[in-house]
Amino acid sequence: MSLLSKGKTAKPGEEFIRAEAAARFLLKQTKLRPKIAVVLGSGLGAFADEFASAVRIPYAKIPNFPRSTAIGHAGQLVIGKVDGIEVAAMQGRVHLYEGYSVKDVAFPIRVFAGMGVKAVILTNAAGGIKKEFTQGRLVVLSDHINLQGVNPLSGPNDENFGARFPDMSRAYDKRFRELTLAEGRRLGIALGEGVYAALAGPSYETPAEIRYLKTIGADLVGMSTVPEVIAARHSGIRVLGISCVTNAAAGILDQPLDHNEVLQTAERVKGQFIALLRAVIPDVASAL
Ligand code: HPA
Predict the structure, then answer these.
(1) CA of 16 to the centre of ligand 1 (A)
(2) What percent of the chain has pLDDT over 90?
(3) pLDDT, tens digit, 9 for 90 and up, residues 254-276
(4) Is residue 36 a contact partner of residue 117, using CB atoms and an 8 Å limit?
(5) Considering the entire predicted model, what is its pTM?
């Protein structure tokens, strides 16, 4: 009996078979059976360096897994324990702007579904559009706007993953958001809450695009996360999204954007971000 198709009757498609092969491979590397997965964005990979009883598997060794090329992304999957809780963490993700298809970008989430993961915590670096979302601010995502022009669910639907038309009206789990905001208060970290707009990149936005995004209700802008959220919701995986505002979005301040600034801010806030993740993981585990 296959891992993903337990109780399912539809004939699995190619993507499903590829994800299942990767999930099987990963479960063979460890006795741990994580219910929570974390995707660590730019500069945040260090969190998984602290896992106990960890196995570290380079993406290149995982069957069918995409490899990340972006600077600041280590490109390995770590399965280990955080305060006794079994967690799978991606140190780096792949992005559309690297030339990957949206299905490749979402593929790791398909693999997590195959491993039995029930919750994903997606982190990223983002530009701040809302005035209060200044450099270094951590923001819990309440919703998103997909402006990437693509959707990982395009094409024939595989019922083994989920329904043809998944509901996205509660994509970012309310309970997880409340728990995270409470941990922020406890830790003295001033968290915001906001709507993330995803663009394809890799060029940063123009000031006119940022004015447009503000008008349509975006508080943050980035180039990731949304395909993963869509794939997760397709499979009934609950989602928590947290952005680190690494810079004011284009035109908000009178200065050009620079990827080094993004990395430097992520590095500066890393300690806080890791403290928050560490605090939130047990809460998420007990809410499952
Ligand atoms: N725009 C898009 N993506 C980003 C930004 C930004 O300003 N900062 C970090 N990722």
Answers:
(1) 32
(2) 81
(3) 888 888 888 888 888 999 999 99
(4) yes
(5) 0.94
The residue ranking higher by pLDDT, 35 or 7, is 35
Cα 10 to Cα 109, 114, 163: the distances in Å are: 20, 16, 12
Domain residues for the domain of 222 are: 4-287
Please choose from 96, 123, 223, 242 the residue to mutate so as to test ligand 1's pocket, defined by most ligand atoms within 8 A of CB.
223
> SS3 string of 98-154?
HCCCHHHHHHHHHHHHHHCCCEEEEEEEEEECCCCCCCCCEEEEEEEEECCCCCCCC
CATH number at residue 167: 3.40.50.1580
Quote the number of domains for the chain: 1
Query: Tokens for 233?
Result: 């919701």
Ligand 1 close to Cβ of residue 41 (< 6 A): no
- Residues known to be catalytic: 42, 73, 95, 97-98, 125, 223-224, 247, 259
